[in-house]
Write a structure and sequence with these properties.
Low-confidence stretches: none
Order of helices and strands: EHEEEHEHEEHEHEEEHEHEEH
Strand order of the largest sheet: 10-9-8-11-12-13-14
Number of strands: 14
Strand content: 25-35%
Structural class: alpha/beta
Largest sheet: 7 strands, mixed
Radius of gyration: 20 Å
Mean pLDDT: 93
Shape: globular
Distance between the termini: 30 Å
Length: 310
């Protein structure tokens, strides 16, 4: 027998949480955030959650503030005798800090996992982690969903001839290869060298793109530097067109300007992070129905493996 379910949202993800709750067939629970003049804030549930399975939806873009609000909400739900507390994090911030890539640095993703565990989370639901091994940082179940279930349908709808999938870097080759297998096409890989974060010194492409319609697949688009540089380079090498699909549209700094000036014909993203401004080049597909269905399956103890294309 399933426990009663209640869905709540953090401040930063209300736009998406309302869609998820509607798709699930319920309303968001009543939670308020009280802000103090020194920057401190308090969260409180304005309805009982005793004995309920509580789903708290919060993406951790603008990571520090949204993460701590999520931690406070998890702690409040546990102290209010919730049966289980599930953190629904469509975008998992700090995921790029998944290892020590140089001496004397933190592993931020592991720290976030430890903080969530300390707050009392019973389960985590997220989408397209920057590194799959982050699931192993948790000692609770992690439902790792993939936007490929949405993007593949869009790519097929384009009905492109001479299609080829591109990985924006060596680390994205596994993701690109999975797309290529489902679409029955080849892949190319971009090789880039960085001197610092968000700064690309040089880039080249491994593989042939001449006469091809290229689709770059990635999990995060931050400044759009990699995507735009890759697109411009591929067009110079004779590609017919370059599009991109990217799960998490951080789009910080000069990302919108970079996109507008680039050869990218279309960038398809999800709504795990809200767009800061409109762009004719950006198309948004919603993850609301996907998360609502998985919440329903988790609550009723059903398999969710059908959502794991890869």
């Amino acid at each position: 027998m399933s426990n009663p379910i209640k869905i709540f949202t953090g401040t930063g993800t209300r736009y998406l949480s309302e869609q998820i709750a509607t798709s699930y067939g319920t309303n968001l629970g009543n939670v308020i955030r009280t802000n103090f003049s020194d920057g401190e804030y308090q969260t409180s549930f304005e309805e009982t959650v005793r004995g309920c399975d509580v789903f708290i939806i919060q993406s951790t873009f603008q990571p520090t503030d949204n993460l701590f609000e999520l931690l406070l909400m998890v702690d409040a739900a546990k102290r209010a005798s919730a049966h289980k507390v599930i953190a629904v994090m469509p975008y998992f911030g700090w995921a790029r800090q998944d290892r020590k890539d140089k001496p004397r640095v933190a592993i931020g993703a592991k720290l976030v996992a430890d903080l969530l565990a300390a707050a009392g989370v019973d389960r985590v639901m997220t989408m397209d982690l920057h590194a799959d091994q982050i699931q192993g940082f948790f000692n609770v179940p992690v439902d790792h969903l993939y936007a490929s279930t949405l993007f593949l349908d869009h790519i097929r709808s384009l009905k492109l001839d001479n299609l080829i999938i591109a990985a924006p870097d060596m680390g994205g080759s596994k993701r690109a290869n999975a797309y290529a297998k489902h679409l029955g096409c080849d892949i190319v890989i971009c090789y880039k060298q960085r001197s610092a974060a968000n700064v690309i010194d040089s880039m080249t492409v491994i593989g042939e793109v001449e006469g091809k319609n290229v689709i770059i697949v990635d999990d995060i688009c931050d400044t759009a530097g990699t995507l735009t540089k890759a697109a411009d380079m591929m067009m110079q090498k004779g590609a017919l067109s370059v599009r991109a699909v990217c799960t998490h549209a951080i789009l910080s700094g000069e990302a919108y300007e970079n996109l507008e000036k680039s050869a990218i014909k279309e960038l398809v993203v999800t709504d795990t992070i809200p767009l800061k401004q409109h762009s004719d080049k950006i198309k948004v597909v919603s993850v609301a129905n996907l998360f609502a269905d998985v919440i329903n399956r988790v609550n009723s103890h059903e398999s969710i493996s059908s959502h794991f294309i890869f």
